[in-house]
Records
---
Amino acid sequence: MEKTDTGSHAGMAGVVRPAGVAGSPGVIENQQGSPRGRGVVAGLVYVFEQVMPDPFVLSLGLTFVVIVLAAWLAPHGTLPVILTSWYEGTFHILGFALQMILILATGYAIADAPIVQRGLRALASRVTSPARAALLVFPVVGVAAWLNWGLGLIVGALLSREIARRVKVDFAWLVAGSYSAWSVCNSGLSSSIALSQASHGNALNLVEKATGHVVPLADTVFAPFVFIPTVLVVVVMTAIFIRMHPKAEHVIAFSEPHEAGAHADEGDPHARAAGTSSVAARMERSMLGTLLLLALGIGYLAMTWREKGFELDINTTILIFLLAGLALQRTPIAYADAIRRAARQTGSMLLQYPVYGGIMGIMTGTGLAPAIAKTFVAVATPATLALWSYLSSLIITLLIPSAGGHWAVQGPFVLPAALALHASVAHTAMGVAMAENVSNMLQPFWAVPVVAIAGIRIQRVMGYTAVTFAVSLVIYAAALWLIP
């Protein structure tokens, strides 16, 4: 049984070496119980296990790096400005952090619904080999992530567990595949950059503030330069992951945890309410509370969309997923139990968001982010600005993993450049979002809830997703360069 790390995973499951593999030629068992096989992918897995620290520790290291860079390169990198910017950034992000956690929690509640769970088990039951696992995981998770990034994270982790219970596959490879499929989320309907530019009056709608116009989703999410590479990443990475699966003697399979009480709270969540006829229990089982919230939410959406037209932003996305989860879970107590289970996966996010908020504050307050972005923009032309926006975003994403927070930092500098050069505003904005997709494969922030639910070390997963980083880097860059 693999030991667990705070912030990396929740200890819900572990990995074991199949019988007969220990001591096989070409396999070296390290202290974490992972194989050191031959080849590029095995080498990447080994390097990430040995070099990459816990995500929270990594965020602290990035904070130190940003402080040094700000003091060295930023125009306002004095100690008082750094300290003030760090403090303001740490607490300014809390509202956005809660929105992101709610997206994750409401997505979890949908995936946790009995009817969805039965569907995931039915899908998993059809898998008989690693190749079929990849052919199932990539399209299912890709579509779910395109619809909502929180739903994609949860479906990917839970579907990976269900498949791994039935088929002998390398569990880190499978979880990495689901996370790779999830990477397209910033090109989908829950993209905070695309949604904010399409939402009238949104605080992050920098295009509207500068031009008086919004950018509809037809020009971003549904545009060929975004949609085509999104599909290509899913298709190409499916084929690559099939070929990347370790040989049988190198596989580290999924294993259910054996700790006492590990599943003590995973029984029927309705058992307490069903076992009594008290007034409180009847209220918990009643659908009246669910119907009330559904009526309020549906009524608000119908009224707003009738008056202002259909539009999605972060809050309406959360509301829609709240309503969908309530409808699927049916009773208030069932939904409350699902959210409580989801809350166990958000601890590391609560811990890391303030740290990254501090990093964002330092980069913004000291002028470090503009210095980085302007270096790229200075050499851009109308035809190449979107590509330079994309390349600079790759760097900034590693320091600010939230797409919304990232846009708040980079948008104020790449957008004026697009207007001044008469370049495509949609291409420039989505270049930032596409780079988020790519850099997330090396930035562990969003992998934390996946590995927490799946129950595996994040380092082994990131060794595989490094390949996704390299491939998707080329695909998105080519799309920005070649597709109008």
Note: The beta strands are 14-16, 253-255.
---
Amino acid sequence: MQIPVDIKAVIDEATNIDEARATPISVSIYMDETAPGDVQAHVRQAFASASAHARVSMVYFPSFPVVAAPDADMAVIVAGLDEHVGAYAADIRAAGVPVMVVTTLPGLAAEIAEASGHPILEDDLVAPAIDDVLALPEQAGSANEPYSLTIDGALSLNKRMGEWVIEACREKRLAFALAFRFVRKPLSLEAVNATAVQNAGIGLVVILPGADLPIMTLNQAKMLLQIAAAYGQPMAVERVKELAAVVGGAFACRAVARQLVAFVPALGWAIKAAIGYSGTVAMGRAAIEYFEGDGKIDHLAEVVGRARDKVVLVADSARKQPSVAAAARAAAAKVGHAASAAASNAVPAASSVAASAVGAAASAGAVPKPAAKAVTSAANRLSASVSNRFGRGSRA
């Protein structure tokens, strides 16, 4: 099979792992002695690193003074009930160092800081999501601070800390991912979400038959390289089979898209966008879960291939629906499900574009009204649900 992308260009544009490994990073941690013991232990463990280029310093207050280190790449304040937390955060930020305030007492810590005259910036206050702390849905609203760091709560806190790091330390984010495990999955998910939205857009706007395939394929190849890099797994030119698996996925998904477009011609843009999005998300998430389980680069092609096959089967089921409207609903539902799982605040924009395209086609009489209504309704529901769930962006 001839691969319709320039492999060398993909490799050249992939992140240089060796360079990132050699990049020095410095983290200053300020530990509030009144903070709960489990969150103190969690942050200590999260920032333990075997990297020779990662320097982590730790100070406990109020026993020792908090002095901003201007040469640090970032700072962490593990907050309890100390009234000086807000002032310390302001001083560190004034020294030009981004500061993350980690706590399992988010409400109390914020109130104390505000009362002291130094409120903590909302985006810098990092705590587990309440839904991940509570064991049962009926407990909603009944959680008392400090939140207990259950397994789900610890995973949620890691996710939020990782998202903060890749946003605040963008120039060195790969170096942080290689040094600290909790940064790897958020960094990889950012690559998946961005690539999926790009491929959905390509499906919407590329008009020339077949012209979208090389672009989507190149995007997917870069995405896998970025994910592999985040987990410290280099992919050199000789790893052609991994790229071949991506291209095979693009061909397979594209073939199903052609069949669906032929079945519902006027919905072609929306269908290609749905499959471009869903296929990219499925392959990217499969790669992440594989590396999260300490998988090696050797078997990535097999993992991605299985994810690709699932997407093809699911997408093909839409073609077998008994009516045009049912096919439209099925296609829209597939991208909706994938988008809800992806947690990207760029998704509502993509779904709005899809809805607008279908709506315009219906107005022109090119699409049966029930089918257009089904796709538009699904896209609008998707936009609303994702906006509600992830309205504050990647840190929500």
Note: Strands lie at 25-32, 54-61, 74-78, 99-102, 125-126.
